[in-house]
Amino acid sequence: MKTKNQPPRRRTPLQDTEASLGERTLDVSQQGSGPELSKGLRSRTTRAAGTRAEAGRRRQGPGGRRDNSVQRRLESNERERQRMHKLNNAFQALREAIPHVRADKKLSKIETLTLAKNYIKSLTATILTMSSSRFPDPAPGSKLYQHYHQQQQATGGALGDTEAQPQGHLQRYSTQIHSFREGS
DNA sequence: TAGGCCATCTGGTCCT
DNA sequence: AGGACCAGATGGCCTA
């Protein structure tokens, strides 16, 4: 799997407003921005958003939006940005909660979700195994057991197969970590 | 250069 | 009604 550690690509509200309104298309590369800006940061948003905004205005036809409509759209864009930032923060927190992942290789979102899912399954199976060794017959009232059993039934699995064994989950988990590291 | 990943904008729909 | 959520479109960055 390819790896990347891209810097956050954000723009200021001012840039956002300008780009969205299409007052001007900001191409930082033409404004003499030096290397003090990261490659990622100075790239995309300004130029790309400007062209997208222009495309949007073309869809709106001559004259563009009314002022209040534009204002509402800008506010909506800002809310959407904040929402996505919160989502990305949650992804980052999830990445950091998954052990045995090399810090210098950032997991993609899909990798993060997949690994987290299997890590949870691995832990769940481990807990069930430990508890069953202590109490050979899992307590029928155990919420964990009930939940796990329902999940297995819903996904077509069964507690008796290898999926239910912690080794199975751990193997899948470690295999995925390995494949992510290897870039496969 | 192609493909993967990502941020952002946008309009539609759902929810409170 | 307004905000949250969602998915499609767009285009930049990075790696192989």
Automatic annotation (TrEMBL):
<comment type="subunit">
    <text>Forms homodimers or heterodimers with TCF3 gene products E12 and E47. These dimers bind to the E-box site, however, heterodimer with MYOD1 does not bind target DNA.</text>
</comment>
<feature type="region of interest" description="Disordered">
    <location>
        <begin position="146"/>
        <end position="184"/>
    </location>
</feature>
<keyword id="KW-0804">Transcription</keyword>
<dbReference type="InterPro" id="IPR011598">
    <property type="entry name" value="bHLH_dom"/>
</dbReference>
<dbReference type="InterPro" id="IPR050359">
    <property type="entry name" value="bHLH_transcription_factors"/>
</dbReference>
<dbReference type="InterPro" id="IPR036638">
    <property type="entry name" value="HLH_DNA-bd_sf"/>
</dbReference>
<feature type="compositionally biased region" description="Basic residues">
    <location>
        <begin position="1"/>
        <end position="12"/>
    </location>
</feature>
<keyword id="KW-0539">Nucleus</keyword>
<keyword id="KW-0597">Phosphoprotein</keyword>
<dbReference type="GO" id="GO:0046983">
    <property type="term" value="F:protein dimerization activity"/>
</dbReference>
<dbReference type="GO" id="GO:0045944">
    <property type="term" value="P:positive regulation of transcription by RNA polymerase II"/>
</dbReference>
<feature type="region of interest" description="Disordered">
    <location>
        <begin position="1"/>
        <end position="80"/>
    </location>
</feature>
<dbReference type="Pfam" id="PF00010">
    <property type="entry name" value="HLH"/>
</dbReference>
<dbReference type="GO" id="GO:0070888">
    <property type="term" value="F:E-box binding"/>
</dbReference>
<keyword id="KW-0678">Repressor</keyword>
<dbReference type="GO" id="GO:0007423">
    <property type="term" value="P:sensory organ development"/>
</dbReference>
<dbReference type="GO" id="GO:0000981">
    <property type="term" value="F:DNA-binding transcription factor activity, RNA polymerase II-specific"/>
</dbReference>
<comment type="function">
    <text>Plays a role in controlling the transcriptional activity of MyoD, ensuring that expanding myoblast populations remain undifferentiated. Repression may occur through muscle-specific E-box occupancy by homodimers. May also negatively regulate bHLH-mediated transcription through an N-terminal repressor domain. Serves as a key regulator of acinar cell function, stability, and identity. Also required for normal organelle localization in exocrine cells and for mitochondrial calcium ion transport.</text>
</comment>
<protein>
    <recommendedName>
        <fullName>Class A basic helix-loop-helix protein 15</fullName>
    </recommendedName>
</protein>
<feature type="domain" description="BHLH">
    <location>
        <begin position="71"/>
        <end position="123"/>
    </location>
</feature>
<keyword id="KW-0805">Transcription regulation</keyword>
<feature type="compositionally biased region" description="Basic and acidic residues">
    <location>
        <begin position="64"/>
        <end position="80"/>
    </location>
</feature>
<keyword id="KW-0238">DNA-binding</keyword>
<dbReference type="GO" id="GO:0005634">
    <property type="term" value="C:nucleus"/>
</dbReference>
<dbReference type="GO" id="GO:0061564">
    <property type="term" value="P:axon development"/>
</dbReference>
